[in-house]
Amino acid sequence: MQPYELSLSAAADAIRARELSPVELTDSVLERAGQVEPRLRAYATVTAERARRAALEAEREIAAGRYRGPLHGIPMGLKDLIDVAGVATSAGSRVRAGHRAESDSTVAARLSAAGAVLVGKTHTHEFAYGLTTPQTGNAWDAGRIAGGSSGGSAVAVAAGTATFALGTDTGGSIRVPAALNGVVGLKPTYGLVPRHGVTPLSWSLDHVGPITRTVEDAATVLTSLAGYDPRDPASLDLPAVDYRPADGTDLTGLRVGVPRTYYFEQVDPEVEAAVRRAVDRLRDLGADLVGVEIPMARYVQATQWGLMVPEATAYHQDTLRTVPGLYQADVRVLLEAGELMPAGDYLRARRSRVLMRQEWARTLRKADVIAAPTVPMTAVKAGQETITWADGTEEGVTDAYVRLSAPANIAGVPSLSVPVGQDAAGLPIGMQLLGRPFGEKVLLRVGHAYQRTQPPPALAPAA
């Protein structure tokens, strides 16, 4: 096994035991990037020399007995919305040509303090306003979409060109590409991870979170990311938590909610079958399965778009008026649509979100977690715009991918996507676990228990 193939936890154990050096690991990851980047294009910028210097510094610190913890010397990718001092934050847009961040975002600073090594900035759909990341190819089939908007981050982790990465999630942008590329993606509770220094899409829906090979890895990264920052108005001052799960698989007494409505409607049969098999595995581990109704399901799409569109337009107001031609057509149309949305529609969407959060809280009293598909189908071919379901219904690709992930953003609850198999074409399938606000430890415990019963996660062939 090559060092780039190691999970974060395995690499950290080897580094701590002096069986692997950060330099060896970083060189392996950079060599892998050189091999697969021409096909996959996960990175907007590869900071190779910076990474080598940081890895060498980590190696010296560890040799001197100054080991900082499990992220020390571990190569990472950061979505190209996340500021790192002196490095471009292009947000995938010509609008940001020539931009350089003046200071670190909160999350970049925390990961740097933990000793992580920046490999580069990963591609995003322009300003995170989409669910395909058209610059990037799927790690399992470069002719299919990577998912978005954190497609570069998910592909980098799946292909071995980053040991872990960060993404952002406004309507599914961590979990969708994680599911489509066969890796783990965690959207934390709203307010748990600070967003200072991260280019926003929609202030009331945006989250920052990890994309990793395993659930254990996601818990390790979250432990370093979470914590109060007064520069983010949504950030909450909560006690520090170690999110890393214990090694056991016993889920006796845990109630897993299985949706009777919404989440299994208009879902590919192979996706549904894989998720239901995974749910049955949770039952085999001792969990109790309980049926749940998904509240206010008919209002999900209208609420998501009713919040996101005007908030995105408000952020882009000046550049939309001065340099509209620098935006890609799909994003410009959405931004212009936001200028036409009445204030009353936005206020009704905010009211709907309040009611939806109340109803989700009631539903989550009946179950400790809810298990459902992350997305309704595996990765479609690049350029495909619609899906036709078995009943003849046609749905836009973006609408389909956001449909099952958006409720967690509206309700602000944590959601974890875990790979649970592949379809007949060999494309990954993801199951999402949703929990109560600040219930990340429970989600991570369940996801880790499930993964402990599975073969070790394999890297994508990146062929």
From TrEMBL:
Coiled coil: none annotated. InterPro entries: Amidase, Amidase_CS, Amidase_dom, AS_sf. Residues 24-444 form the Amidase domain. One of its GO terms (molecular function) is catalytic activity. Gene3D superfamilies: Amidase signature (AS) domain (3.90.1300.10). It comes from the Bacteria. Pfam families: Amidase (PF01425). This is Amidase. It comes from Streptomyces cyaneogriseus subsp. noncyanogenus. The lineage of its organism: Bacteria, Bacillati, Actinomycetota, Actinomycetes, Kitasatosporales.
